[in-house]
User: What shape does this take?
Amino acid sequence: MSDQDYVIQATSLNKTYHDGKQDLCIFSDLDFALRAGESVGILGSSGAGKTTLLNILGGLDKPTSGRVLLCGVDLTAGTDRQITRLRNQYLGFVYQFHHLLPEFTATENVAMPLYIAGVRKAEADRRAQEYLARVGLAARAAHKPGELSGGERQRVAIARALVNQPKCVMMDEPTGNLDETTAGGIQDILLDLQRSVGTSIVVVTHDTQLAGRMDRVMRMESGSIREVS
Assistant: This one.
């Protein structure tokens, strides 16, 4: 399999936080690879380093040492501006809390990555409304986040993450703040969209059911990561 078949290749990752005279090692010599179109669920207890790893893979944090290639480009060597551009071009993000902008409509929130990328507003809004329709929110396009339910807000966040058809979507407990029924519906929408768009997914979660719906399941513990059979 060639390097072009991988969206993410991380090698020999080390992350250590310095706290006064003490060093806290989160993980060491960690390797991770994600193929195009693949979905991976990462399980682990609180404090195992799942979110730290996700942030490093998504260019939101840098490892103490090691290298992360995103679509063949070294994230660990780029400037902040270069990394920001790569994130906008190749990645989408969904968090436990939706992080929608309260003063903007659902359409404008979904279109935000396109605005940032320089897409004309009319075209960006059209594409945003298309994705809102795909998550079942066509009738809510003009509503602001305060007028939406928790599940609707998370569907807006998923539409926003996928609107620019990224190579990969990074998710941190995307259903952790939802009731079981709503969470199941969000999972269905997410996976249907992932298959239709062809994007890869990395999701860190405590939800074994969500992780089990991914192509692969991995577990972080004791500063390392392993595949779960």
